[in-house]
Amino acid sequence: MRVLLTGSAGFIGSHLTERLLSDGHTVIGVDNYISGQPANTQLFLDHPRFSFIEADVSTNMPVVQEPLDWVLHFASPASPPHYQQHQIETLMVGAQGTQNALELASRHGAKFMLASTSEVYGDPKVHPQPESYWGHVNPNGLRSCYDEAKRYAEAITFAYHRSRGVDTRVIRIFNTYGPRMRADDGRVVTNLVNQALRGEALTVYGDGSQTRSFQYVTDLIEGIIRLMGVDFHEPVNLGNPDEYTILQFAEVIREAINPQLPVVFEPLPQDDPMQRKPDISRARELLGWAPSKSLHEGLGLTVAAFRQPQTAAPLDHTA
Ligand code: NAD
Ligand code: UDP
């Protein structure tokens, strides 16, 4: 396949690039580095089936002359501090960026995938969250630039599927972690792992009773590849249903790195969802997919990567 991947220099984009190349595909990565890392592009630059275009897909989506089989739209700031620092750009990439990517897929007759999010469920009142749940989202709060952008992105993806016949896929990704996350992205996994490695107190926002369910990145990538291989257009949750309170998560980090570390409590950010856990029945039935890595295993791999001076590990390009 010839694949155009937006957001290729991001955390998930880099793992997806790695998997696509090792499966024998050709990858054209596109990124403007608003939240991604040049080191993630650097990893693949000498691979014969990888090329990279630096561009903002909201305003300057590249015109590709060669045929494309897949357009995978993963560009968007994803961590709350990043998207709150870039609110308008986040809305633009969910709206105009998604439309530009859909137009590209439509012109090439390519399959399209949207990286949507569990944030479309907002602060959910249904638990765990099945794809049929419409969500509970503050339309103008601090998180709205991300949540509503992704809800619009889903809507326009479905519009292109219904009105233009584009062969679309929509995944709703739940909290995903692993090597190559930006150390300064402000998400709970990177904050706490780095605090623990530096011997600092672990910051827990609120009383730590809010929950998240953490998925290791290679499990997500496997779900993405499987979904591209089936004919299915409704949204699919991809996440690990093992649910932890944030205080329990801090305890797991302490046990893994340094049990002596204190926890400090800081104010809970506005509209922080109180619980989140995917119902993955659809992915199980449709794709025969379920996460394979426990939090313990996945964190072990992540911590090992964060102990290295550079988290972007070199690849075997013979694949
Ligand atoms: P990330 O910030 O590491 O990667 C996103 C990439 O998109 C970055 O490299 C950034 O520079 C690029 N980008 C953003 N706007 C762009 C634009 N206008 N033009 C070109 N490139 C642009 O985040 P991530 O965690 O890798 O997330 C990737 C995708 O998955 C995002 O769409 C995100 O919303 C979605 N997602 C991630 C998670 C998670 O837990 N990591 C959860 C749900 C959804
Ligand atoms: N959080 C925390 N300490 C931190 C960073 C985040 O307690 O240093 C909390 C945050 O308030 C939220 C949860 O951890 O309840 C997950 O936050 P993250 O930013 O990783 O992702 P999201 O809120 O988008 O799920």
Automatic annotation (TrEMBL):
The source's domain of life comes to Bacteria
Q: Is NAD tagged as a keyword?
A: yes
Query: Which keywords describe this protein according to UniProt?
Result: Decarboxylase, Lyase, NAD
Q: What positions does the domain NAD-dependent epimerase/dehydratase occupy?
A: 3-230
According to its UniProt record, which cofactors does this protein need? NAD(+)
Q: PANTHER family per the record?
A: UDP-GLUCURONIC ACID DECARBOXYLASE 1, UDP-GLUCURONIC ACID DECARBOXYLASE-RELATED
The name this protein carries in UniProt is UDP-glucuronic acid decarboxylase family protein
